């Protein structure tokens, strides 16, 4: 049984960002609005391939597209990463809680290397 929800913004962002070129595109437009042609010029792939990557990023809510005459301009949508940020924050909090419990458990045995008295 799958625990992923295809409608979950964090899941959509993770799937979109799994591809290295999409991450690179997002970095290109993180601070500047760029035309599709300018984005395509940064990669050694066809404009059609870049267009497909832009579509995936747009559908994941990570890009904003603005039309200006015949040009399409793209910029990052930082708010599109909010769901992913929340997921990572939850994972980080859980990892810190686990680390705290392990340290406290080790402190109770007087050991700091993770070994118990029986394995020492």
Spans of at least 5 consecutive residues whose pLDDT stays below 50 are: none
Approximate shape: elongated
Overall mean pLDDT stands at 84
CATH topology of the domain at 9-80: Arc Repressor Mutant, subunit A
CATH class of the domain at 9-80: Mainly Alpha
Radius of gyration: 22 Å
**H-E order:** HHEHHEEH
Q: Specify the CATH architecture of the domain at 9-80.
A: Orthogonal Bundle
CATH homology superfamily of the domain at 9-80 = Winged helix-like DNA-binding domain superfamily/Winged helix DNA-binding domain
Strand content: 5-15%
Q: Could you tell me the number of beta strands?
A: 3
What about the largest sheet? Answer: 3 strands, antiparallel
Distance between the termini: 41 Å
Which sequence of strands runs across the widest sheet?
Answer: 1-3-2
DSSP summary: helix tally: 5
Structural class: mainly alpha
Helix content: 40-55%
Question: Which features does this protein show?
Answer:
mainly alpha, single chain, Arc Repressor Mutant, subunit A, 54% helix, 120 residues
Brief overview, please?
This protein has 120 residues and is mainly alpha-helical. The protein is built from 5 helices and 3 strands.
Description:
Helices cover 54% and strands 12% of the residues. It has a domain at 9-80: Winged helix-like DNA-binding domain superfamily/Winged helix DNA-binding domain (Arc Repressor Mutant, subunit A, Orthogonal Bundle), CATH 1.10.10.10. It is elongated. The protein has helices at residues 9-17, 20-28, 36-41, 47-59, 82-109; strands at 34-35, 63-68, 71-76. The chain contains five helices and three strands, in the order H-H-E-H-H-E-E-H. Strand 2 and strand 3 (71-76) form a beta hairpin. Strands 1-3-2 form a three-stranded antiparallel sheet.
């Amino acid at each position: 049984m799958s625990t992923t929800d295809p409608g979950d913004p964090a899941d959509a962002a993770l799937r979109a960002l799994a591809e290295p070129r999409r991450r690179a595109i997002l970095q290109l437009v993180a601070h500047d609005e760029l035309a599709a042609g300018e984005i395509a010029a940064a990669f050694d792939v066809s404009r059609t391939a870049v267009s497909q990557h832009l579509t995936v990023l747009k559908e994941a809510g990570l890009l904003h597209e603005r039309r200006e005459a015949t040009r399409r301009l793209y910029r990052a949508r930082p708010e599109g990463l909010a769901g992913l940020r929340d997921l990572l924050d939850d994972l980080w909090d859980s990892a810190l809680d686990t680390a705290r419990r392990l340290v406290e458990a080790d402190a109770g045995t007087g050991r700091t290397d993770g070994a118990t008295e029986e394995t020492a």
